[in-house]
Specification:
Length: 544
């Protein structure tokens, strides 16, 4: 850290009283020391960023603050008073609110019902609802947190669901709001709106703790930032006195390349050809409405778009597991051969044999078996491979050795192949999936949100591996909500909206603003709706 800078760690800033002060907090899970003697001071009325590598101990620290874990040692002070936070109810009573990465909302309840849920002990529903309606109206006006109180959660966009989580905390009179990677699922416009809300809350004197892997957000919105590394708090600095490069180095302990270093693509023959792909789900909703594109060997096609516009269904179909009850039409060719889009031959195992690797969007549901050990997960889907079998039996020694090697190469921490997937931090879980899929050297790699929740050191590494795969002549479909990631990695960018491809751009000839408009469905009159397809191959209607 640069000399002469205030170190905010540990003790309160003389200018503002501390809303939260942690002194000497430690927490171990068996042999893993998740938090070691942590000091942290968060001045009242500030936005405080917490950053750190995957597994650095950020979530553990926040879970201690919210009463999910009991620390092994240390002291917590809220507004200068020592407090024991035994459970989340105690945290809420102390004025602490938490907005989790995975929202805790009841999907088929309304906004109002969700807001009062658990907050109105023993109260009758009707008075609670009418009180909540009044409070909600007030909060909405005060902080621009508009949501329809009578809408069910499932009908709301992710950004609006997040607003409900914030409203829930404010309804419980939270003075300190902790947000764990809040922008991971938001569009750039929604993220901007969230930041304005957070600034509004700060201006009202509330205190915000923001966990994020995005240094741009730290620089844009926080007043102070604390950096964790391997369970320790290594620095706390004023944001205006630091830079993304310095923060990256503090986090990882070495210099990090923040931009992707790659040569122009040299695309060859098409590997994947998708024509007029259509999909209607089991509820009759049209999810894909005539999607067409090509990906050639040696290129990365980035697919930008707000979550929920058909990207998930596209990846599922290409990966060989369309949702049950879905009706799929159109044509997909891989290396010139048609791929079955339904029936028994449409399955993930067959797709792997066809040369398709897949890093799914939801690592916990589709990428890993959470109760299985890391070594089992590294072989997941490849257990029949000859190198993992000895006669009739699986060769567990070979599988373990392979897992240990991949975990070493991808720097999965802790380097324990026997640990269950659920006990790795989110970013390390992602590294396990990425290692398994990339190391198989597939002809086509489907990637959904490759770096969601992954720290910058690991992002640098994963991006490098993706580019290497491209340079080795493989085709890559990259689906990401991160426009920066799409723009820096892709050779071509297509934008998806409402089950259609709205247009295609070259990354160096577009801007996040232009892509943002396409993502919002603003019609792109100049761009063909058929990304990368020569006119003679286009559907007659599209040609017209
Ligand atoms: N319940 C648990 N049992 C065993 N180990 C755990 C448990 N929870 C966390 N850990 C370990 O504690 C360490 C810190 O994890 P934590 O989730 O706090 O990290 P993080 O900084 O939030 O990471 P990420 O950025 O990847 O979310 C990791 O090594 C993790 O594997």
């Amino acid at each position: 850290m640069a000399a002469g800078r205030d170190n905010l760690g540990g003790r309160s800033d003389a200018a503002a009283p501390a809303a939260i002060e942690l002194r000497g907090i430690s927490k171990a899970f068996g042999p893993v020391q998740a938090n070691r003697n942590i000091d942290l001071c968060v001045p009242k009325g500030t936005i405080h960023g917490i950053i750190g590598e995957n597994g650095a101990g950020k979530s553990t620290l926040m879970s201690i603050l919210y009463g999910f874990y009991k620390p092994d040692a240390g002291e917590i002070l809220v507004d200068g008073r020592p407090i024991t936070i035994a459970d989340s109810q105690t945290a809420i009573r102390a004025g602490i609110g938490m907005v989790f990465q995975h929202f805790k909302l009841v999907q088929n309840f309304t906004v109002l019902e969700n807001i009062i849920l658990g907050a109105e002990e023993g109260a009758m529903l009707r008075p609670s609802l009418s009180k909540a309606r009044g409070v909600l109206k007030q909060l909405a006006a005060e902080y621009q947190l508009n949501v329809d109180p009578d809408a069910t959660i499932e009908s709301l966009s992710v950004g609006h669901q997040q607003r409900v989580e914030i409203l829930k905390a404010l309804y419980r009179q939270a003075e300190i709001l902790i947000l764990d990677e809040p922008t991971g699922v938001l569009t750039p416009a929604e993220a901007d709106h969230l930041f304005r809300i957070l600034e509004g809350l700060r201006d009202e004197g509330k205190t915000i703790i923001l966990i994020t892997h995005k240094l741009r957000e730290i620089i844009e919105i926080t007043d102070n930032v604390s950096v964790m590394r391997r369970g320790e708090m290594v620095a706390s600095v004023r944001t205006r006195d630091t830079s993304p490069e310095e923060l990256a180095e503090l986090m990882v302990g070495r210099k990090v390349l923040l931009n992707v270093d790659k040569q122009p693509a040299r695309p060859r023959a098409p590997v994947l050809e998708v024509r007029d792909l259509r999909m209607v789900d089991d509820e009759g909703v049209e999810r894909l409405r005539g999607v067409s594109f090509d990906i050639r060997a040696g290129e990365i096609l980035g697919l930008a778009g707000v979550s929920g516009n058909g990207q998930t269904q596209l990846l599922e179909i290409l990966g060989g597991y369309p949702k049950k009850g879905a009706r799929v039409g159109g044509e997909v060719r891989m290396n010139g051969r048609p791929l079955p889009l339904s029936g028994s031959k449409c399955n993930a195992g067959q797709r792997r044999r066809d040369g398709i690797g897949h890093i799914p969007e939801d690592r916990q549901v589709e990428g890993l078996i959470m109760d299985f050990a890391a070594w089992e997960n590294v072989a997941f889907g490849w257990q029949d491979a000859p190198e993992f079998n000895k006669g009739w039996l699986m060769d567990n020694t070979a599988i373990r050795a392979d897992a240990a090697e991949k975990m070493e190469r991808f720097d999965v921490r802790p380097r324990d192949p026997n640990l269950a997937a659920r006990n790795f931090s989110g970013g390390n879980q992602q590294k396990i999936v990425v290692a398994r899929e990339i190391e198989r050297n597939p002809d086509l790699l489907l990637i959904g949100q490759p770096t969601r929740g992954v720290d910058i050191g690991a992002i640098e590494f994963i991006h490098k591996r993706i580019v290497e795969l491209r340079d080795a002549g493989k085709a890559i479909l990259l689906v990401s909500v991160e426009l920066d990631e799409i723009l820096s990695l892709s050779d071509r960018v297509a934008v998806m909206f409402d089950g259609c491809i709205m247009g295609e751009r070259l990354p160096d000839q577009t801007t996040t603003g232009e892509l943002g408009l396409l993502m919002a469905g603003v019609t792109d009159a100049d761009a063909p709706a058929t990304a990368g397809i020569p006119p003679e191959d286009q559907h007659p209607e599209e040609r017209a």
